[in-house]
Amino acid sequence: MSMLRTIKPKNARVKRALAAREPQVVENEKTAIFVRGQSTSEIVRNVMKDLYALKQPHAINFSRKNDIHPFEDTSSLEFFANKNDASLFVTGLHSKKRPHNLVFTRMFDGRVLDMMELGVEGFKSMGEFDSPKSSVGIRPLMVFHSDLFDTHPKYQLVKSFLLDFYNGHALSEIPLIGGLEHVISITAGPLPQTEGLDLENDKNLPKIHLRVYTVKLLASGSKIPKTQLTEMGPSIDFSLRRVQDADEEMLKMSMKRPKLAKSDVESGLGKKKKNIETDSMGDKVGKLHLDRQDLSKMQGRKMKGLKVRKVPAASDGEMQVDNDEE
Amino acid sequence: MDVTQQLADYAAATTTAVLDRPNPIITDAGLLAAFDNTPVDADEYGSNLNPHLLALTLTSTQALISSLFALPTKSTSSGPITLLPTPATLLPREKPLPKPKPLTKWERFAKEKGISHKKKEKHVWDEEKQEWVARWGKDGKNREKEGQWLHEVKAGEDADLDPASTARSDRKARIAKNQKQQAANIAAAANQSSTSTSASASSRGVSTLSQEQKKNLRERRKEELHRSMLLSKTATASLGKYDKAIENEPKVKGVKRKFEANVTPTSGKSEKENALDVLHRLETGVGKVKKSKKGGEGDEGGLNVRKAVRFQGKVDRVAGGGAGGKKGGKRK
C-alpha cells in the first residue's frame, strides 16, 4: 500500500475510475491474477494457462517471473492486488520439496485473507480433449462430491476457495437455455481405510480431482431436461498441501452482509413484511384487512315517523297546556 | 459390436443419472452450485476413476439442473430468463462494506432541526427574456447584475460606487465562503475517519482530534481558567469585591467572607491560642508549596548535581569540538 502513491483525481474520468474501486454494497466480480514464481515447471504453467482460460474475462495473466513465495512474504501480492484491483491470486511454483505447486491466495481489503497450496499430481490439458469448449464469460455450474468438503476444515477451505474463484459473484438472473455450457466438478477421494487415522495429519490426505465437462440439455419429455456431459478439460488431480486460515477478525469483517434495501425487504427478502409491497412504479402499496362492519349502529333513512322520541313526554304536555291558556 | 450399439452405450453412460445417493444432494441455485455430501465409494474410485467421476458429476448436475428449472422465470424478447435466489453459501467479500458518508455541518444541523432537503432546479424562468436560464455558470442568473447596463442607485449610496463590480465581488465572496466551508467539512470528515480507524495518525504531527474532543478540551480549559480566577480573588481581604471587574465577568456565587467572632467564645480556643497558631504556621511553613526534590537537589547541599553534570558536559563538548573540528576557530 505504501508503495503505491495516492492518486488525486484531476478529471471526471479518473474520479469515476477511482470511485469504482471504492468499497461497494454490491460488489463486482473478483479478478484473479495468475503469476509465476521464480522457478516453475511446464506442467504448472500449463495448468495455470487452463485455469486462466476458465476464469476469463475476470483474469489477468502475468507473463514474467516474480520472486514470490506467498507463504513467506505476501507484500508483493498485496502490491499487485492494490495496483490491479484484484483479490484472487494463483501463484505457480516448482521446487524439489513441493513439485508442481499452485498457491491460491484470497485477499480482503487489500490484505491476504487466506491461502491454500495444491500440488499438481496428474494433468491433462484442455487441448488434449478433442471436444467442443465453452464460450468465454459463461458462468460454469459447480458440483462438489465428498463428505470431506463438509466436515474436514482443510477441505472446507478448498471448497470455499474454488467456489469463490469461479462462482463467487452471485448473479440475479441467468438464461437457462444457452446460459449453461459447462460444469466444473470437484471431487475429493475417499479417506484411506487405515486405523487410527489422524485427520489433522498432512500426509495421506485424499486427492482432489477437478474435471470440466460441457453440458448438453436433451429433451426428456418433461419440463426438466436430461443432462449429457462431455469432458472438455482440463482434468487435474491435486494433492492438498499447506493451508493458511483466515484471521478470525478479518474473516468476520469479510462475511458481513449489507443491510437489505427497503424495497427488497418488502418484496420478501430477509424478514418478510405482510401486506406491504412496492409496485413497478416504486410506490408502496399496502393491503388493509378490516373487521366486519357493525350494521346495528348504521344510520338509516331519516323520517319523521321513525324518530326516536325521548321517554319523558310530561314537559311537552305542560307546554301544550300553556299554549291553550293564552 | 455394432456401431449404433456403441453410440447408444455412450449416450447412456453420458446422460443417465446413474447413481443412487443416500444423502440428498444440496443445491445452492444462487451460486449455481451443488454439494453431494455422500462419501466417495472407495472401490469404484480405486478401480475406474474417470467413469466414476463422470457418473458422480452427472448425478449432481442433474439434481442442480432440475432445481434450476424449478425456479421462477421471466420472459424477455431474447427468451425466458430464470431469476436466481440469493446464495445460501457465505463467501467472503472482496472489500469491506462501504462506510456511510460523513454529514456536512449543514446536513447535521438540518437533521437536528428536521429540515428536509429541497432540490433546486438548475434552470430558472426569466420573466424579461421569457426563457429558461441557468441558475449559475455561463450566462447564469446570479451574474445578471454584473452585465446589466443600467443600475438603480439607491438614496445614500456613494456617487462613485460601481454596482457591477460590487455584485461581482459579492458573488466571489460567496464562492470563497462556500469553498472554505467545503474544505472544513472535508477536513472534519478526514479527521473523523482517521480517529476512528487508526490511532497511529497522531505521529504525523497533525491534530487528529475530532470536533467533539476539541470542544471537550475547550470546555475543560474554560473551567480551569474560571477556577483560577476565583482562587486569585481570595487574595484580597474583600474576596475581590472591590477589584476592577472584567467585561462580562460572571458573578461569583457561594464565596463568603468569614469574620472572627467579636466576643471570644467560651468554648474552643482562646484569642491567644489563635495568635500562636498563626505564628507557628508562619514558622514551619505549613500550607506552603513544597519544592519538588529532583536528582541531586538536596535539602542541605542546595546543589543540583544533575544540572551541574549536564552543564559541565556541555562546556566540555563545546571546548573539545572547537579544538578538534575547526581550523581557524581557535581563540588566542
Automatic annotation (TrEMBL), chain A:
GO CC field: nucleolus
Keyword tags: Nucleus
Region Disordered, residue ranges: 257-326
GO biological process: maturation of LSU-rRNA from tricistronic rRNA transcript (SSU-rRNA, 5.8S rRNA, LSU-rRNA); ribosomal large subunit assembly
Gene Ontology molecular functions: rRNA binding
UniProt feature, compositional bias: Basic residues: 299-310
UniProt entry tagged with the keyword Ion transport: no
Pfam families: Brix (PF04427)
InterPro entries xrefs: Brix (IPR007109), Rpf2 (IPR039770)
Keyword Repressor: no
Subcellular locations according to the entry: Nucleus, Nucleolus
Composition-biased stretches (Basic and acidic residues): 275-295
Family that this chain belongs to: Belongs to the RPF2 family.
Family annotation (PANTHER family): BRIX DOMAIN CONTAINING PROTEIN, RIBOSOME PRODUCTION FACTOR 2 HOMOLOG
Protein name: Ribosome production factor 2 homolog
TrEMBL record, chain B:
Any one biological process term the GO annotation gives: ribosome biogenesis
Taxonomy of the source species: Eukaryota, Fungi, Dikarya, Basidiomycota, Agaricomycotina
Cellular component GO terms, alphabetical: nucleus
Role according to the record: Involved in ribosomal large subunit assembly.
Membership in a protein family: Belongs to the RRS1 family.
UniProt-recorded name of the protein: Ribosome biogenesis regulatory protein
Intracellular or extracellular location(s): Nucleus
Claim: Zinc is one of the keywords in the record: no
Biased composition regions of type Low complexity, renumbered to the chain: 182-204
Keywords: Nucleus, Ribosome biogenesis
Basic and acidic residues bias: start-end ranges: 212-227
Region feature (Disordered): 182-232
